[in-house]
Amino acid sequence: MRDILRSPTGIAGTVLLLIVFGAALFGPWIAPYDPQAFHATARLQGPSWRYLAGTDQYGRDLLSRLLNGAPATVLFGLGATVLGVGAGAIIGVSAGVAGGRTDTIVMRILDGILAMPELLFTLLIVTFLGGGLGQALLAVAVTFMPGMARIARSAVLSVRTREYVLAAQARGESRLWIVGREVLPNVLGPIIVEATIRVSFAIMIGATLGFLGLGAQPPSTEWGLMVAEARQYMFRNPWCVIGPGVAVAMTAMGFNLFGDALRDAFDPRRKR
Amino acid sequence: MSPLATGSAAKPRRVLDIADYSLSYDTAEGPIEALKSISLTIHAGETHGLVGESGSGKSTLAWSIMRYLAPNAIETSGTILVLGEHMTGMRKADVERMRGSRIAMVFQDPSSALNPAMRLGDQLVEVLIRHRGMGRAMAWKEGEAALARTGIAKPAELMRRYPNEASGGEKQRVVIATAFACNPELIIFDEPTTALDILTAKQILELFVALREETGVAALYISHDLGLTARIADKVSVIHRGAIVESGPVTEVFQRPREPYTRQLMAAVPRPQHRIAVPEPSVSEPLLAMQNLTVRYGKPGWLTRLLDPSARAHNGAEDVSLSIRPGELLGIVGESGSGKSTLAKAATGLNAFEGRVVYGGRSFGSRRDYDKAYRREIQIVFQHPDASLNPRMTIGGILARPLRLYRVVPRSGVERRVGELLDMVLLPRDFASRYPHQLSGGEKQRVAIARAFAAEPKLVICDEITAALDVSVQAAVARLLVDLQRRSGAACLFITHDLNLIRQLAHRVAVMQRGRLVDLFAVDDADSPDRHPYTRALLDAVPVPAEPAESLL
To answer: Second label for A70, Cα 20 to 30 Å away, from A48, B44, B87, B510?
Structure first.
C-alpha cells in the first residue's frame, strides 16, 4: 500500500476511489432530496444553491439521483468483475495446470469467443436474457471470462516450469498441493491487478447498456440510464448529461489508475 | 606466468585514464554507492583484467566508460578520460562519435547483443557506414574481410544470415568483428565467454588474443574467472563492493596477493590437486543404475506427422547406461544441451523415459512407477537458487514440507528438525521465519540443499548447483555438500560444466556429448592417454589454475 501511495497515479486513483466508495456507502443517506421527487417549478435547471448539480426534465435533483445511483453502479462493476474474473481464473488455472489436449480445446473455444467484440457479445447475451440490471451483470461477467482465463493461464504456464514446482513434482506432491500451494499463490498478483482494471470496463459497459435501454430500467438512478433519459434535453440543460457522465468517468478512472499503481507495486522491476 | 599476454613494455600513451571516479544509484532506500573512488589506467596495447564477483560494480564501471548510465545514476566525483578526452560531461553527439570509432564494447551474451530482426551483415556494415563513411558496397566487402579475420570459414554466407540461424560462437565472432571494425583504440570486453560453451569459449579467447596482436588495441577485460584473466591480461585490478582492492601486473597479483580479499578469491578457485571428496566407497554393488535410458522431447502428434512426415522427436538422451555406488560422488560433465540435466530429470520423474532405472532391487520402466519411497530416497537440487524456492513460503515452511510429506519425524518434532537442518547447512535458526527473497543466492542454495537432505535420501542429484554462484560461494557450497555426504553417507550425482571443480569432488566422471555417454573414468585417470578425444578437448579447454607462490589454503 505504501508503494501505491508513492506514485502520483496511485494517489489520484486512491482519492477517486475513496470519493466513489464514500458515495456508494453513504450516498442514499446524505442525498438532500428524494431522488424520485418531482419539483415541477424547477425543471432542467443549472447548478444553484438549492440544487447543487441542477435538475432534470422532471425537476428531480440530479445530485440526489447521482448519490442514490452510486451503490448500484459500483456494485454492478464489482459484481460483474468478481463473477467474470472468478470463473475465468478457475477455467484458466485448470487449463494451464491440466495442459495437453484439455488445454488446447478449452483455449481454442475461448479464442473463438474472444474474437467477438466485447460490447457486441454483451449485447448478444442481453438480447437472449432480456433487459434488467441482473441480466446485464451476468452478460458482462460472461464477456470478461475468456480474457481473464487467458491471463490466468499464461500466468500459470510461466510458473509451472519454475524449479520450485519441478521440485514439488520430484518430491511426489499431490496435484492439489502443487496447484493450491505452489502455483496459485504465485499467480494471484497478476489476476488481482487485472481484475481491478476490469472493474472500470464493467462500469462503462454497464453504463452503455443502461444508455441503450438494455440494463437498468426507469425510474432507476443507474448512471448510464440517467444519461440516456436526459439525452433529448441535452441542449436545454447540459448538466443532466454532464453530471452522470463525469460520475462514470471518475469511477472508471479511479479503478484504472489504482489498478495501474497496483501493478507497478507488484512488479519489483518497476520499482526505483 | 601469462604466456598469452602481450609484452608489458610500458608505453607512454594512456588510452584510458580513470581518476577517483565514484558513482551512486539513487534508490527508494536512499543512495547506494556502486563505485567508490576508482582509479585505473590502461596504456596503448595493454590488456587490463578487471575481476570481481557479481554485484562488485565491474559492469557498472564498463557502462560508465561507455556512457550508458541509468537514469538514477549520479556521478559523485572523479573523471574518466579516453584518449585524453573527458567522457564525464561530454555532449551526446560527441559520445556517439566516440562509441564505435574510438571505444567499442563486446557484451556477455551474443544472442541479446544482436538485433534478431536484422541480418548479421547489416549489423556489421552499419558501423562501417556510420563511423568510417564507407559506401554500402564497399562496407559490405570490408565486413566480409573483417569476418574472415575472425576465423569464419564462409563470411559471405554468414553475412546474409539472421542471428537465430547462427551458433553462439558465430554470433560472438560477429560481435567481435563489429567491435574491431573501426579500429578502435579501446575495447571493453564484458565477460565475452561466460555465455558460451567451454570449447567455443576457448576459440573466442584465442581469437581475442590473435586480433589483439594484429591490431595492438588496448582492452579492458571484465571477468569473474581468475584463471582466464591470468592467461590473457597484462595487468589486473580486483574489484570488491565498488572499490578496487588490489591492482598490478597479473603475475604479481595472482602469485603474491597482498589483500585478504584477493587471497580469499584465489583460495576459492577450484584446483583438481586439492581433493575435498569423501573417501572412495568400497562397495561395488550399484545403488542406482540407469539401463539404456532414452529420453525423447517433442514427440510429434498424429496430425503433425500427417502434415509433415519428416517430423521427429528430438533425443535428449540416447541409450545411456550409468550406475552409481552407495556413498559415491559421480560427476557428469558436458556442454550445454549434452543431456546432463535430462538424465537428472528422468531419474526424478520429471521426464518420461524409455529403458529402465534399477534401484534397491526394484526395476522401474516408466516414471509413473516411481512411488513415494523411491522419491524420498532420490532427491534433486536445482541450478537456480532464485527459482527453486517458492517465493510465497517461509524457509521454515519449505524445509518442513519434506519432513511432513514423508513423515520423517513425528508432527511435534518438525519444528526442532527444521532448526537442526538450518544448523546443518550453517545458517542461523531464525532464518526459518524469513522469505526466500530476503536471502542471498548462496544462502538460498544452502536452503535448497537442506530441503533435499531433509528427506534423508540415499542419492542426491545436484543439477549445476554451483553454476549460478560466485566463486567464493561456490567453494563453500561444494565443501558443504561433501561434508553432508560424509555425515549422511548419501551418494551424489553432481552435474556440472566446471571440470576443475568436478576433479576436486568426484570419484568418477561421466562425459556426455549430444545425448550420449562418451566416456566414463575414475578421476585419477583424467590425464591418462586413453581418454576419449572429446574428454581430452574439454580438459584442454580449461587449464588447471596455477598455484599461488605461498600456500593460501
So the answer is: A48
